[in-house]
């Protein structure tokens, strides 16, 4: 199963089961990463539709959430990480399964 499918299933479960603690979130698929950095009208409109919550399926408008979750591919390392945009604090958190942050 690819990471986009897993995030889509998480979003479906979130919508079906009601509010979770801290559930003011939306989840993006890989299309966002593919569109970043492109300056033509098609890609700009696509990014705007994502921010408005029109796509991907089950997305929410960013104006109605506190966090945006997105899978991100580090192409050189051939590795996936999770990015969480905290829209209230203007922070981006990166979660990487290869890094042990619990060092003593």
From TrEMBL:
<dbReference type="Pfam" id="PF02902">
    <property type="entry name" value="Peptidase_C48"/>
</dbReference>
<feature type="domain" description="Ubiquitin-like protease family profile">
    <location>
        <begin position="15"/>
        <end position="102"/>
    </location>
</feature>
<keyword id="KW-0378">Hydrolase</keyword>
<protein>
    <recommendedName>
        <fullName>Ubiquitin-like protease family profile domain-containing protein</fullName>
    </recommendedName>
</protein>
<keyword id="KW-0645">Protease</keyword>
<dbReference type="GO" id="GO:0006508">
    <property type="term" value="P:proteolysis"/>
</dbReference>
<dbReference type="InterPro" id="IPR003653">
    <property type="entry name" value="Peptidase_C48_C"/>
</dbReference>
<dbReference type="InterPro" id="IPR038765">
    <property type="entry name" value="Papain-like_cys_pep_sf"/>
</dbReference>
<dbReference type="GO" id="GO:0008234">
    <property type="term" value="F:cysteine-type peptidase activity"/>
</dbReference>
<comment type="similarity">
    <text>Belongs to the peptidase C48 family.</text>
</comment>
């Amino acid at each position: 199963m690819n990471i986009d499918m897993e995030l889509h299933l998480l979003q479906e479960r979130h919508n079906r089961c009601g509010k979770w603690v801290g559930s003011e979130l939306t989840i993006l698929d890989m299309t966002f990463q593919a569109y970043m950095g492109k300056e033509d009208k098609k890609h700009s409109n696509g990014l705007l539709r994502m921010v408005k919550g029109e796509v991907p399926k089950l997305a929410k408008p960013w104006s109605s959430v506190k966090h945006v979750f997105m899978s991100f591919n580090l192409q050189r390392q051939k590795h996936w990480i999770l990015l969480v945009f905290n829209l209230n604090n203007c922070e981006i958190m990166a979660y990487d399964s290869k890094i042990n942050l619990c060092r003593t």
